[in-house]
Design brief:
The protein is an alpha+beta fold. Helix content is 22%, strand content 31%. The protein is built from five helices and twelve strands. The strands form three sheets. Strands 1, 2, 5, 6, 10, 11 and 12 form a seven-stranded mixed sheet that branches. It is elongated and about 60 Å long. The relative contact order is 0.15. The chain binds zinc ion. The site of zinc ion (ZN) has 4 residues, from strand 5.
Length: 224
């Protein structure tokens, strides 16, 4: 069987790039309605998969590993040794402080943080979870790689895996838009469009969740 281009539909290539240099150390806390983590940090890692090409290009590549490495390292460097500030949080009020030198975060529970601006990376995300960080990184990497070139080379989908610890990672996979227009790409990766609206479902009272103080604030099981 062949598709319109005469390429066999039973074959496909993918390129996986996962290097020791695809890492960043960053501080964060996850906050959502009724819950806030304590400030802490992770050694994050990224890995990239490019999917879909039915034939490789005349240079023998799906895509040069070197291009993926350069762009991903740049994305990691931007985040490294920063506090990840979720600009679109619906439970943290973010304002300027100290004549614009600091970023102040006022949380729902009354906790206040003030960080030097240079120590913060302001990300267009609602929660600094690995899911949302993966979406942000997907956009950065697509902008760096040139989406139109990827599509021309037959790559139709990219996957970004963001890990915060061994065995704890989130994968974001999306079709690559056939455009290099910055605004269109930013719209395609708007984190807010990937978040369900409405109330959170009540969580069961898992012992671990209770120890951390989570769970019971929205729990319908234990009555707390
Ligand atoms: Zn964390």
């Amino acid at each position: 069987m062949s598709n319109d281009s005469g390429f066999p539909e039973t074959t496909s290539f993918e390129v996986n790039v996962s290097k020791d240099t695809f890492k960043f150390n960053a501080a964060h806390f996850v906050a959502y309605n009724g819950f806030r983590e304590r400030l802490h940090g992770h050694n994050y890692k990224l890995s990239i998969r490019l999917l879909g090409s039915r034939k490789i290009c005349s240079d023998g590549y799906v895509l040069d590993f070197g291009d993926v490495k350069a762009v991903t390292k740049t994305a990691c460097k931007k985040l490294n040794e920063h506090f990840i500030c979720p600009m679109y949080s619906d439970v943290i009020t973010i304002t300027d402080e100290a004549n614009g030198e600091n970023v102040k975060l006022l949380c729902q529970d009354g906790a206040e943080f003030s960080f030097p601006k240079g120590d913060c990376i302001m990300l267009p995300i609602v929660h600094s979870t690995v899911e949302e960080i993966a979406i942000y990184c997907w956009g950065e990497i697509i902008l760096g790689l040139d989406a139109e070139v990827l599509v021309k080379r037959g790559v139709h989908t990219m996957e970004v895996t963001c890990s915060e610890a061994t065995g704890q990672e989130a994968v974001f996979r999306m079709k690559i838009p056939n455009t290099n227009n910055h605004a269109e790409i930013m719209k395609a990766v708007d984190v807010r469009s990937f978040i369900r609206t409405g109330e959170l479902f009540p969580k069961p009272c898992l012992p671990v969740a209770n120890e951390k103080g989570a769970g019971c604030s929205i729990c319908s099981h234990c009555g707390k």
